[in-house]
Amino acid sequence: MSQAEESILSKPHAVCIPFPAQGHINPMLKLAKLLHVRGFHITFVNTEFNHRRLLKSRGPNALDGLSSFSFESIPDGLPHPSNEDATQDIPSLCEACKKSCLVHFKDLVTRLNDSSNFPSITCIVSDAGMSFTHQVSEELGIPNVGFWTCSGGALLAYIQYPRLVLEGYTPPKDESYLTNGHLDTIIDWIPGMEGIHLKNLPSFIKAKVDEPNYIVLKFIVEEIVDEIHKFSALILNTFDTLESDVMKQIATKFPAVSYTIGPFHSLLDNLTQYNDLKSIGSNLWKEDTHCLEWLDTKQLNSVVYVNFGSITVLSNDQLVEFAWGLANTKMNFLWIVRSDLVMGDSAIFPHEFLAEIKERGFLGGWCPQEQVLSHPSIGGFLTHCGWNSIFESISYGVPMLCWPFFADQQTNSWFTCNRWGVGMEIDSNVKREVIEELVRELMIGEKGKEMKENALKWKKVAEEAVTSPNGSSYMNFDKLVREVLSPKGSSLLPVD
C-alpha cells in the first residue's frame, strides 16, 4: 500500500445523511464540507430522487467531488413523481423515510465498511429527522451526531407539544378555533420565548388530527423530539448570542451537548482549504446566475429580493397581489419564481404587470441565494422565513419582510420581528396595498432604517462568532470535532 493510500485510509470517515428536502440538504452539505476541511473522508447520502435532481440541475459531473468526498444514494420508498422538478409531498416523504430508509442505509454502511477503498466509518452525522440511523450507529458502536436544521427556537417550541395538548391548547377541536381568537392566546410559560402567541408556534403544532400536516407533526414528535436524546451530540446552525436564552433551555432538556457552530457559510469562508469544495453544490433547481449580472447594474441597497423557498406555494390570486404590490412601489426587485410556486399550476403573470416592471424587475427560476444576499445592491428581503433564509439574511445584514407559510416559519418570523428587530410581518391575507406600503417602509422608511441598523449589528456579531481564535462558533466546531467526532489516532487537520 502506498503512503498516499495509507493516508486516505487513516482519515476519520463521516457518513452524512440529510432529510431529503432542499432546506435540509443545503446546510448538511455545508456541514460535510466543514468536516472535510478538518481532514474527514465524507460520504454524503441523498435519496435516489434528489440525486437525480442534483445531476439534472448541476450537470452530469457535478457530484464527482474529490477523492475523499463521495456521494451515495438510497431509495426513499416513494413512486416516481410526474414532475421531477417539483418538491415531494412532505407528509408522504415523512412516512416513507420512517418505513423504507433503514434497510437501505444499513446495506450502504455495510458495503462502505467492507470496501478496501474507504476508511472505516467512524461517525454518522444525521439529520435529526432520520432517527433510523440510531440503530446503525448502535450496531457499529460509533457516535451518531444529530443535526437540527431549524432554529433553536423552533426546537424549543416543539418540545412544548405534550404540555400544549395536556392544557387544551391543541389540537384545535374544529375550524372555529382558527378564527375565534384562540390563536392569539399568549403562551407565557416557555422560558426564552416570553410573550409568544399560540399562532407564532410552528404551524404543525396546531394541526387537526384529520389533516395531512398532523402526519408531519407525529413524525416530528415521534422521530425527533422523542428520539433526540439518543444522539451523541446535537449540532445547530446558529450562534450563541443570537439564541442564548433558548439554548440555555435546550441544554436543560437533553443530556447530549449542543454545539452551535453557525453561520456555516461564514465559517466555511474563513477556512482556507475550502476553495476545492466550492464546485460541489446542492441546489435541486438549476440556478439562473444572470440575476447577478442584473444586480451589478443596480445601485447600492436599491433592490428588494423576493424568494419563498423550496416548498411554499401561493394561490394565483396571492401571486397577483404580491406582483402588483411590488410593481406599484416603482422599486427594483429580484423575484425567484419556482416552476411549482403556484398551487396546481404554473405562475402566470398579467401582461400589464410584465410591461410595468420591464426595466426594474427580474423574474428568475432559482438563484445562488448567498451570492444574492451578499450583493451590495440588495436592500431588503421578502421571505417565507425558512431558517436558512432568515439566518443567511441576518449574517449578511439584510432586513426582512416576513410572510411565514408553515412549519417553523411562524416561530422564525416572531423572533425576527420581536426579538432581533430585523423584520416586519405581512398578514397571511395578502393585499397589494399592504405589500406596497411595507416594501416602501422596508426600503426607505424610518422603521426600515432601524431594521437595517440592527441587521448590520447582527452581521458583525455573526462574523465575530466564526472568527478565530475566540469566536464562539469557531471554538464550538473545534470542540465538536475533537471531543465527539474524531476517534483517537485519526489524522485531523488544524482548524486553519
From TrEMBL:
Known EC number: 2.4.1.-
Keywords assigned by UniProt, alphabetized: Glycosyltransferase, Transferase
Catalytic activity: 7-deoxyloganetin + UDP-alpha-D-glucose = 7-deoxyloganin + UDP + H(+)
Example of a GO MF term: quercetin 7-O-glucosyltransferase activity
UniProt cross-references to Gene3D superfamilies, sorted A to Z: Glycogen Phosphorylase B
Record's keyword annotation contains Glycosyltransferase: yes
The keyword Transferase belongs to this UniProt entry's keyword annotation: yes
Family under the similarity heading: Belongs to the UDP-glycosyltransferase family.
Annotated protein name in UniProt: Glycosyltransferase
